[in-house]
Design brief:
Blueprint lengths: L1 H16 L1 H21 L12 H31 L2 H7 L4 H27 L15 H22 L3 H18 L11 H6 L4 H13 L5 H25 L7
Length: 251
């Protein structure tokens, strides 16, 4: 517990000191919200009747939280391994669970602040997002999403050995997933074959569950299906991460 507390505190201090990263972590999704809000203001998706902003707000929020989880732990593990910090932790009594657990708590905190800030801005005049009555279900859905994408980030951080490779691998995974999973463009307006492809992407399940919880697009079964999909991907990513994790560049 002492190792876990120390790693969490150290990670928090390092995170708040990097003001540039903190700024873009929270500002990046809001920039997309403003852009899409201006482009699609007053427009609705014919297939469902929901506004484009409702789709994009839920999708961009999901993508922003998932992106922060992947990049946050991916860069940290790569840097700690490069600086031999992981090797020193390995020589201490601290278990691997303390390393991942400390980053998990920080990711949950970042995701909570991101969600509150994003939804708060989306409810302002001009965006006019009206949360559904079941919006509290957004909290467990986001926790599941962060868990899933944090484990994906562990894989990325275990494979990559430079900041450039972390950015390259993470962007290769997250950017196409955002477009193909409905984060930036409603899946209802996409061809059937593209909707089927999105079923093999974890962000699709996070988007669906967030949309059902936040804006009411769908019912409780959609939240349940999205949550089960995230759990399934979390199990797969966790198994891969356990095998891929490296304390040093060679092992």
């Amino acid at each position: 517990m002492s190792a876990y507390t120390a790693l969490t505190a150290a990670g928090y201090r390092a995170q708040v000191r990097d003001r540039t990263t903190v700024f873009f972590t929270f500002a990046f999704p809001l920039i997309f919200l403003v852009v899409f809000g201006l482009i699609f203001r007053g427009q609705a998706v014919e297939e469902s009747g929901f506004s484009y902003l409702s789709y994009t707000a839920a999708g961009v929020l999901s993508w922003g939280v998932a992106n922060a989880a992947v990049f946050g732990i991916g860069f940290t593990l790569m840097q700690w391994r490069s600086d031999d910090i992981l090797r020193m932790i390995r020589m201490s009594p601290a278990p691997l669970s303390s390393v991942i657990g400390s980053r998990y708590v920080l990711a949950l905190g970042v995701g909570l602040v991101q969600s509150l800030l994003f939804v708060g801005v989306a409810m302002l005049p001009g965006f006019d997002l009206v949360p559904a009555s079941r919006w509290p279900l957004l909290i467990p859905v986001m926790a599941l999403g962060i868990t899933t994408f944090l484990l994906l980030g562990v894989i990325v951080g275990s494979i990559a050995d430079t900041p450039e490779s972390v950015a390259g691998i993470a962007n290769f995974l997250m950017l196409p997933m955002a477009f193909l999973s409905g984060s930036f463009f409603p899946l209802d307006a996409m061809p059937d074959w593209l909707q089927k492809i999105s079923l093999v992407m974890p962000l699709r399940y996070l988007n669906d569950a967030v949309s059902a919880a936040l804006i009411g697009r769908g019912d409780l079964s959609d939240i349940g299906t999205g949550s089960l999909g995230l759990v399934a991907f979390a199990v797969v990513f966790g198994a891969i991460a356990a095998r891929a994790f490296r304390w040093t560049k060679t092992s």
